[in-house]
Amino acid sequence: MSHRVFFGALSAALVGTLFVGKTLAQADNALPNPPQYPIENPPNAQQEILGKFLFWEEQMSSDNTMACGTCHIHEAGGEDPRALTTTNPHPGPDQLFGTADDIRGSAGVVHQTNAYNFTGNDLHFPKPRVTGRRSPTALNAAHHTLLFWDGRASNVFTDPQTGNPEIIFGGALESQAAGPPTSDVEMTREGQTWNDVVAKIQNVKPGALMSNLPPEMAGFVAQYGSYPEMFTAAYGDPAITSKRVMFAIANYERTLISDQTPMDPLLVGQISELSPALEPGRLVFQGVGNCTACHTVPTFMDDDFHNIGVRPETEDTGRFAITGDPADMGRFKTPNIRNVKLRAPYFHNGGKATLADVVEFYDHAGDFANPNKDINLLTLNLTVQQKADLVAFLTDGVLDPRVEAGTFPFNRPTLASETPSMNTVYGVASNSGLGVPPKMLTHTPANIGNPHWLLGLYDAKPNATTLAAFSYASAPGLPFPDPRYPIPMNVNAGTLFLLLPGATDNLGIDTIALGIPLNSALLGLKFYAQWFIKDAAALATGGVYGSKGVEVEIR
Predict the structure, then answer these.
(1) Are both 70 and 193 inside the same structural domain?
(2) Which of 213, 311, 395, 450 has the maximum number of C-beta atoms within 10 A of its C-beta?
């Protein structure tokens, strides 16, 4: 059951200072073929900075926990660094965790229904859902004519709100940006549309969950304190539409061109060879390693799709699912390998942890003898030294130091999900009649302007009456004032300000959704919450038992 309550009236405080900045696209471009902008979406400085806000805006998600950038961290080479250490993989085609086909995808949102109720109808619950493929890099993505591992983001961009084609050629970035904000795995609840996304953007404070804003972003939000003002600066009027959102995000991504690697001076003829530490590996890369069969210079990709035997092609049919062409069975887009040092784990399933593993994979021509495996994949029989040289080249020869350091244009804000949680669980829980303590989902940020701050309950008695109690003070583990109910109290009964009755579903899950106004006076306010559940069998606590408490700070 979902409950919605507002703490108080809306208010907003806007500040204005002069913004002075250059077009993000004015970053140096040593790469011989810089990205082209579609004629329908030419570059402009204010639109690109708007796109930078939207790319890193966790409020684009339904529960304020995910941004586009969450899965595309610049210092991780534009990919998701969480995939390397996750204990929450995708279970793969067999739907079993801990087996060989597990996929190191990207964690998104905890599964929610369209009514903002957490639901246990998911293998990952209570953890976030996970994508079935590794997040591709967002850096230099502008050089691809098709995007996603299977190329489903096409050159032709169709506005999801109107159904009208808005870009006829060169719109893959715009097409790609249309997907995640309405994916109930990646960023949102079931059934969310782009109408919902743009309506939410209309009413949130830009960057409310961000910290450490780069100078160009700090200046922009100081001058344009709301998204309608930002859209006016970029487009001439305050209308927020899916087309404008995706145009802005795509043109921001077109500024993310990594072109200052040790290889780039060689590519433009400024030097004739690399350093002694890197030149042997380059020669392997461009020679006996056969790497340039797919990773062609200067972009280090061929803008094509290949089956290289990472996994059996029947597990994930790749490009075939889009085209229906048997020749595309098990084929996946060639990634560019700039900054590959930063992008572990590797391949579309995240199946290789190190570059040494990747080199070994290619040395023996892939792990699986797929019927449709690419003819260019050859057994290499590299020597130990050649392998070491190739790893050295891949580690440093194609690394842009600006990417690794996160400097312009690869600077970015810090996300709320990267900082310590403002929600702290404390106190003592009591047990159900079966001896099971209830648990809470407390991961969503309670920021001003959040229309749906979510507090979840799970592992509770199914189909039971619940009560969510909110107070202005805690009482960790104190007895309930009524001696008939010896429940440990984690909220202070004397400062209760809200009691919300509800019920668990048939899996023992309940959800509270609170709307928090865009009111700066609420910043720093703390409140405390605890769940209570009826269970006649909970004899030790008088037929009612309770969760731990959670301290929540509005940010």
Answers:
(1) yes
(2) 450
Q: Which domain holds residue 362?
A: 263-399
Q: Please provide the DSSP assignment of 229-242 as one string.
A: HHHHHHHSS----H
Of 224, 258, 292, which closes a domain? Answer: 258
Residues 175 and 317 in one domain: no
Task: Look at the block and give the residue holding tokens 């784990």.
Answer: 345
The single-letter code of the amino acid at 87 is: T
Cα–Cα dist 157/166, whole Å: 6
pTM recorded for the entire structure: 0.92
Helices (H), 317-366: 320-323, 355-363
* Closest to 188 in 3D by CA, of 114, 240, 88: 114
Interatomic CA distance for residues 247 and 174, integer angstroms: 6
pLDDT single digits (tens) 157-210: 999 999 999 999 999 999 999 999 999 999 999 999 999 999 999 999 999 999
Of 55, 89, 92, 91, which Cα lies nearest the Cα of 73?
55
Q: How many CB atoms lie within 10 A of CB 72?
A: 25
The last residue of one of the domains, among 258, 288, 310, is: 258
pLDDT per position as a tens digit, 79-134: 999 998 888 999 999 999 999 999 999 999 999 999 999 999 899 999 999 999 99
CA distance 544 to 466: 9
Tokens linked to 339? 């900054």
Task: Lay out the sheet containing 453-458: strands in order across.
Answer: 4-6, 510-515, 453-458, 439-441
Q: Which two tokens stand for residue 503?
A: 């019920």
C-alpha dist (Å) from residue 41 to 79, 170, 195, 294 = 25, 10, 21, 30
Q: How far from 233 is each of 23, 343, 490, CA to CA, in Å? A: 14, 35, 48
